[in-house]
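Weekly puzzle thread! Below is a chain. First person to post its structure in token form gets bragging rights.
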Amino acid sequence: MAGLFDRSRAPHHPPSPISPQQRATAIELKKRLPSWGAPRIKKNFELTISDKAIRKIWHQEGLVRRKRKKHKTKNDLRAVKALWRLFEQIDVDTKDLDDIPELWPQIRRLNLPKIQYTARDVVSGLLCNADLTDCRIQTDNGSEFIGSWNAKSPSAFTLTVESIPGLQHHTIPPKAHTYQADVETAHRLIEDEFYEVETFLDRTDFLQKAAAYNLWFNVARPNSYKSNKTPFQIIHERDPTINPRTALLPPVFLDQIYNKKLDNLSQGGYHVAPQPYSSAAFPLPREAAFGRRDPLQALGKAKPWRFISAGSRVIRVAQEFPFWG
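Winning reply:
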């Protein structure tokens, strides 16, 4: 019976055998970044072995995750959305963080946030900081956005949004979760690439690393759904005059801003929301979140920094961006 089986056609002496160091590197990177695929790890870490060889090593070591089942796509609207103008629609949603096993112990120990609020531009994929004149802010029908389900008047969120001239608050139809696909996709990526692989020392360290990831996401992470371009590449192609600071909005602790507002109200003062980089909204030195660099210096004119969250640290890799003159 053995004679009926096909013989291996693999070469006995391959011209470029995989070295123990290459194998160990592929295994180490997969353990640190379990959600990343072979092409992405090969590209970002400049591995010299092929995608196929990397996957074979992972299979041999039992490191390949079982892929989540994807619902069948009924309508692929990327071509339609590409015709919209920049910042025509911003999708806003919340993400519960207390159901991420790798993050939950750190939430309890360090008093980290349990909920993330995210705003994402549909056209570019930017995690937002932009001129939102004549923009739609789209949300689901959660109580944080509409108040009570049977409310007779607009919620505080709606009134706040529409108090800015030109801004409109739209809600999606009930249970139409695919309407929020862009921001939901960002939530999945952030969980896979940041929360599952990062460890934090304290709340300050959490903000620093979140700011680094946000910067990398906006200016250096190619998006395969958007022709392998980064959000800022898309913005720059659409309108080269847009200030690069558009991509530099750091994350903030919303509870600190809210508590400051309550303090001002209790003192009888008039509260105006602070600027994102002010000490009230972002209680870190600006350079702290970007490795002792001013955000614009961190991007640089010729070699902006790309931040890759990996393990317990943020790896910084210099990379040329041809669109940056």
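Puzzle host: Confirmed. Bonus trivia for everyone else. The chain has a mean pLDDT of 76.
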